[in-house]
Design a protein that fits this description.
Layout lengths: L11 H20 L6 H32 L3 H30 L9 H15 L4 H24 L7 H9 L2 H17 L6 H27 L16 H16 L2
Helix pairs in contact: 1-2, 1-4, 2-3, 2-4, 3-8, 7-9, 8-9
């Protein structure tokens, strides 16, 4: 799936959750339901698979991009190794900074995928995993796939990719809402064949991640969560810059 040109997706969370589920069942058979380390071991194995899937998907895209622009393969591979090692050295500190500032998994910094993985691993060993919901999810997934195949046979532009639908189901509303608006913008601007919109969207995503780290850094260094300036006013004022960004985004994507 990650190698499809034009609709590249890397289903890291899905692969990881499936790994944790099957690993938990295997460890449950080996260690028993009273194991104190079973759930943690399943998460650790899932983390290894998660990193491998993430790096594998990223490398696919990087190597393909390099092939398109005529890059030298062995130099690309050297830089892939450097990039992977650099990330491994830096990421631990970044996660520590974010957790110290926001507490990963708290209402201020939700982590829906991580929460789902934790629930799956602990649910198997506690015997409290709602298998009825798991079976229902599998049935819904099969129905969505069938509907998507029907839409493909009809030649319809409205499709139901099961991965996108699943992500939309379990992500919180504050995350799925901007994704929804982004999908609408993509739908109405894709005919322009303009990469400016894609680059602008990538910049927003990267900028948001970098700003989150920069805001968290003073909290990590000083242990003061109130250093940020608080402005008083009605909450609906935040929708004004949001709408302005959407309008600018739309015009930028259509610009020749």
């Amino acid at each position: 799936m990650a190698g499809i040109v034009g609709s590249s997706n890397n289903p890291v969370s899905g692969v990881t959750i499936a790994t944790i589920l099957f690993t938990s069942l295997l460890l449950l058979y080996i260690l028993g339901s009273n194991s104190a380390t079973g759930a943690a071991s399943a998460i650790l194995i899932g983390a290894v698979v998660c990193c491998a899937a993430a790096i594998g998907g990223d490398n696919l895209q990087d190597l393909k991009t390099g092939h398109i622009v005529g890059a030298t393969p062995w130099k690309q591979q050297v830089m892939q190794i450097i990039g992977t090692l650099s990330a491994a050295l830096v990421l631990g500190l970044v996660l520590d900074i974010l957790h110290s500032a926001y507490t990963i998994g708290s209402p201020n910094f939700p982590a829906p995928q991580a929460t789902l993985m934790k629930s799956v691993a602990e649910g198997v060993f506690d015997g409290k995993l709602p298998w009825g919901m798991v079976k229902l999810g599998a049935i819904i997934g099969i129905i969505i796939i069938i509907l998507d195949i029907i839409q493909e046979k009809r030649g319809s532009t409205f499709r139901l990719p099961v991965l996108a639908v699943a992500v939309g189901i379990y992500l919180p509303i504050e995350l799925s809402t901007p994704i929804f608006f982004g999908g609408i913008l993509a739908h109405y601007t894709q005919k322009s064949k303009n990469n400016k919109g894609l680059l602008f969207a990538s910049g927003l995503i990267t900028g948001e991640a970098l700003m989150g780290i920069l805001v968290a850094l003073p909290i990590f260094l000083t242990s003061n969560k109130d250093w940020w300036i608080n402005l008083n006013g009605p909450s609906w004022l935040g929708t004004i810059p949001f709408i302005l960004i959407i309008v600018y985004f739309y015009k930028l994507a259509l610009r020749k």
